[in-house]
Specification:
The chain is built from seven helices and 21 strands. By secondary structure, the protein is an alpha+beta fold. This is Tle cognate immunity protein 4 C-terminal domain-containing protein.
């Protein structure tokens, strides 16, 4: 059984200052709200400019961001009408993994009362999907509905599309097969030109009902800095409860009840107010929290934009930056950058987040163009593909055809 234990955005120690009620919350006396209209980058930094001397485009979801060439990307949750996970080089293990999953599912029958077991006729079953090699397995972790696993081998890699809590009366198979048929492999370097969603190891040319893409950046030159993006397609309502200002007020009230008001007043607010970048208008608050007990001082930046209702191209966005991170612990080491450098890094990254356009496209370095089989090359030209070439000249002598008409190409390159 594949355990879905990828490193997720929510598992990183990057909870914003407002969520850490037992630690600190800003005092109203030091928070001055202002309307910010940015000319990126306001805080110039030589150190940050060096990091961005060489950049690369990175495609995530329907969007793109320019990041330092030496930075690494870690995917969190990918929700596309179900959770999509990527396992490099695991396609060859699909039979073993499906068998392990079925063993786990056999234990799940205990979660369903005997009087309801007949409502789950597919429990423990395995069927073929529409994609070659695709296997669909039916489990149930409760009497609420099926847990459906779709194993999709693409080349040497394996994707698993997981749909939890599917009501027994609901036919989820068309959705599962639609994801499988619209999914293809993609290298990290490729930025597609066509419409769709960039996911880890692949590209989905589909417009699902629900979308949520989470990624995090780690910088080679700044190992204690974490930058993360969480994009979610809104459904019928906007996530107004995630407003940084509202969370701040709630945290402040809780902190005062705990007698920690004086500690909160020591937070340094670098910038706060309404912020606009790209297609989003939202709230930004950038702080540096003081050292406390065994924790060092550290930066905690956040921007939140609500987006629009039911719009794949204008999702809500939650962007965060933390410094002082070590071994998945916040404020564990002294920050490697100053306030000015943190602001410069933040502004530089935010200024490049944009909806992917056709002119952003770049081909995968791992995918080489191939001449279609059956194409004709002139005498003296290099054979466009490895294999055999054949003389089609009708007037060639019999001896020539016998000896040379079919020859292994040794000159392909």
């Amino acid at each position: 059984m594949i355990k879905f234990m990828k490193r997720r955005y929510t598992e990183w120690p990057i909870l914003f200052v407002f969520a850490i009620i037992l630690m600190m919350a800003p005092s109203l006396a030091i928070l001055k709200t202002q309307i910010i209209s940015h000319n990126f980058v306001k805080a110039d930094s030589t150190a940050v400019e060096k990091i961005f001397a060489k950049t690369k485009k990175f495609c995530f979801g329907r969007f793109i961001i320019d990041i330092p060439e030496e930075s690494s990307v870690i995917y969190g949750s990918i929700q596309l009408d179900g959770e999509l996970s990527f396992f490099r080089g695991k396609a060859r293990d699909i039979q073993f993994l499906v068998s392990r999953q079925l063993e786990e599912i056999a234990k799940e029958k205990d979660y369903i009362p005997d009087y309801q077991i007949n409502n789950f006729p597919l429990l423990g079953k395995k069927i073929d999907g529409v994609v070659p090699g695709q296997k669909i397995v039916f489990g149930a972790k409760s009497s609420i509905g099926y847990s459906i696993y779709s194993y999709i081998p693409i080349g040497e890699d394996l994707f698993v599309h997981y749909s939890p809590y599917v009501p027994p009366e609901h036919d989820e198979i068309p959705i599962i097969n639609s994801v499988a048929t619209h999914l293809r492999a993609r290298s990290e370097q490729e930025v597609p030109a066509d419409a769709g969603i960039c996911v880890e190891g692949g590209f989905l040319s589909l417009q699902p009902q629900y979308e949520n893409i989470q990624i995090g950046l780690i910088f080679k030159e700044l190992p204690d800095v974490r930058f993360s993006i969480d994009m979610r397609k809104n459904q019928k309502y906007l996530p107004e409860g995630s407003s940084p200002r509202k969370l701040r007020d709630e945290a402040r009230a809780s902190a005062e009840d705990l007698g920690l008001g004086s500690l909160f007043a020591r937070i340094k607010v670098l910038r706060e107010g309404t912020q606009k970048f790209g297609i989003w208008e939202g709230e930004e608050i950038l702080t540096r929290r003081p050292a406390y007990k065994d924790e060092t001082d550290a930066h905690e930046f956040r921007f939140f934009g609500m987006g629009s209702i039911n719009d794949n191209f204008h999702p809500s966005v939650d962007i965060r930056l933390d410094t002082g991170v070590a071994i998945n612990a916040k404020a564990a080491v002294k920050p490697s950058i100053t306030d000015e450098e943190a602001l410069a890094l933040w502004d530089r990254l935010l200024s490049t987040i944009r909806l992917r356009q056709p002119n952003d496209a770049s081909p995968s370095k791992e995918v080489k163009s191939r001449t279609p089989l059956g194409a004709i090359s002139k005498s003296g030209e290099i054979c466009p593909q490895s294999g055999y070439w054949e003389c089609i000249e009708k007037n060639a002598s019999t001896a020539l055809i016998v000896d040379y008409s079919r020859r292994a190409d040794r000159f392909h390159r």
